[in-house]
């Protein structure tokens, strides 16, 4: 498949599982597919599942298949009940590896009038020093965009929303749109507040972080730990 969507799907995948049987003819076709994938996209984790229910004389042993592909090969027989458990164990391993190595994007929602008080740029810069964070997106860092375009282009691709709550934020139309949109598309939200009465009522039950201006580093660390907890990355 030469479509851009197919390529994007592969590039955004944590792993690719290729299932083949162990017959020579099938392995040749599978290897062609494998070579095409490797040329088109960079995939860090590829798993070969070789089905050994074949009765053919041309069936190739697991070790030889590993040599041909240069990838870890899992041998199984589709007709045997225990093969399901083998497959599920590998999928669980892939999932755990993906989660442990995943980097995430955070979108910062705040009133520009609060930028200095909350030290938004400092918080973003310090959070980005953590290896698990890919980027912290906030509008003032990308002033070339209209704020609504920035929201539209970035909010959906982020993993979590950091909402800085204040009286200014309550009166800010963009901030209101950001957290309501995040809520609608089921993005995790962390309210960051100085006083609890500034948290929107709809978000009052969500775990948040109290902003301590006199101890900004402790606040940043609390935000980071809560991000990991909300995203199940602890």
Describe this structure in words.
The protein has 234 residues and is α/β, with parallel strands linked by helices. Helix content is 44%, strand content 17%. The protein is built from ten helices and eight strands. It has helices at 4-11, 24-40, 62-69, 82-101, 115-118, 120-127, 147-154, 167-170, 173-184, 216-230, and strands at 16-21, 46-51, 73-76, 104-109, 133-137, 160-165, 189-193, 209-210. The chain has a five-stranded parallel beta sheet, sandwiched between helices. A three-stranded parallel beta sheet has the order 1-2-3, with helices on both faces. The longest helix has 20 residues, at 82-101.
Topology:
Layout: H1 4-11, E1 16-21, H2 24-40, E2 46-51, H3 62-69, E3 73-76, H4 82-101, E4 104-109, H5 115-118, H6 120-127, E5 133-137, H7 147-154, E6 160-165, H8 167-170, H9 173-184, E7 189-193, E8 209-210, H10 216-230
Parallel strand pairs: 1-2, 2-3, 4-5, 4-6, 6-7, 7-8
Domain TIR: 102-231
Protein name: TIR domain-containing protein
Pfam family, one: TIR_2
Features of this protein?
single chain; 234 residues; alpha/beta; Rossmann fold; 2 domains; five-stranded parallel β-sheet; three-stranded parallel β-sheet; 10 helices; 8 strands; Toll_tir_struct_dom_sf; TIR_dom
